[in-house]
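dude i think i finally got it to work??
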Amino acid sequence: MRVVRAAFPRLNDWLNDLPDPRVQEMCLYSAAHLWWQVLATYLCRKGSRNGFDQQRQSGQAPWNLGALCGQPPEDPRFGGQPAVTCSDNAAHHASRVDPERVARLPVLLFRELLQRRLFDSARLLDRWYVLIADGSVKEKCRRGFEQGGKSGQDGARYRYVLQVSVAGPAGTLFPLMHEEMDVVNPETEKQDCELNCFQRLSQRLKREFPKLPICLVADALYCCQSIVATCQLFDWKYIVTLKEGWNMFFAPRPRPPKTTTP
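look at this
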């Protein structure tokens, strides 16, 4: 609790400021309590929501969660006996909140850490903040899923997301922004791709941090003219890794002809 209060003193205010469609007079738990329940489900690593729910009322868990979310046992809604809400209630609440509003929280947290100069020791050449872009599978959907995504060999659908993270000190990595890649163009009926996704994300990143000195780190997929042009336009540095044995034209290097000695 002391670490959270020292690093992010306004975190509970941000959580309570998220849209809350509930009738407040009938609510037992604050909005921050519900969001902290979601965070605790992941942090406890119980493997499932049911695994967390089975132990959510045990020990000092209700008192600890109340201290984190700013809703202490003395809250008159608890009647002197604090409790932790169930995962179904937290998931239902989260499903009614605009994901874009929630996605702004990592940006706000990053700004706080910037002001505290946490990333100074991780800056490249003491100037450039290292941002790593990479796409990954967000979830594997059920067979026959038709709302975007790509098909695998087993016929299931995969939903992808492009994530930009900030390299921190001591090898740490801080997620900053993400962009969905399962968008389908209804006119061309073509799937979205990671490069187009990065163009959208780069525009958002530039609007959020117009003067931040950035060095983009990415894999060989980003070694193309459009990505280089975007980095030059935004005055970003870039480091693109290529696999050994591949030249700038993405073709294998020709092997020297075999020679025979007389």
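Residues 248-254 have pLDDT under 50 and may be disordered.
im so relieved honestly
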